[in-house]
Amino acid sequence: MNFKKYIANFSQWSLACLRLALASWHGRIVLLGLTAGLAYLVVWAPRVVTRAAQGSAGAPFVLGCLAVGLYQLWTNRQAIAQLQPTEADRAMGYLMIFGGVLLFPFCRFDVWPQAMLWVVILAGIAVSSWGPSFFLKYRLPVMMALLTAYPRPAVFARTVWRVFTPNDWLERVMAQAGAFGLRLIGQPAFADMHFIRLPPDGSVAVGEPCNGFSMALTIAATGLIMGILYNQKWYKVLIMMMVGVILAMLFNIPRIMILALAAVYWGQASFDFWHSTWGAQIFSGVLFTVYYYAVMAVIKKRPKRSQPKAAL
What is the pLDDT of residue 311? Predict the structure, then answer.
């Protein structure tokens, strides 16, 4: 492959797009919004890379959503170009872009306000370029933009979860399930709050990173995306998401069991292996493989046809 040729072609295409954008006021305003996006990219990209290096399942999910969204925009680029905004739509979009750009320098203190402003700027670009009908006709790219704007979407969902559930509720449930699983294989384990006790003096705490919530959220969102991509009915999409949540929680139980045994009996090196990147990716890989076949079974299942009644 001639990479120099590809780089040269890409450079020429980029310069042509830049000249075209600078040729009109609309293009200049869109470039202004994209400049704020470049400033946010400097914050967004390192966090995604760091999460991926730590073995987070959310990082590949974010990158996958981004790829799906961009692919959908590219494949529908000709139809999108036919959408025409009204003067009111264009004015509203410009107001959103200018507002987001003006507030952006004052929101550098944390990632989440920058993510919110980036979503506002993207929405302004879409409204001013194609009108509000873009959001109805191309819901998948819009959803991908919302899911990928914040490098850690699970953080927001986890905050909402804490508001509506008792303190450490899921951690206690996972501790009870892990202790029950250990008793099934002959270990004298019992759960004490969110701790798994292994007499005489061994114990391990089931913390928030190990309660299965992040993986359940990731795989439920994966089911949502697959349901949309395969044009499934809403009830099938819900089934796919629920199957993902159930599988994530079930797979989290043996992971907790292994971590408990490693912490108490197998040594620190073994615990670090199963608790860090490699151990997490092993469970994630097996889980996603099983989930893929389960989703395919849901997609391929056809509703039963009613049998014609026999004539009297």
Answer: 42
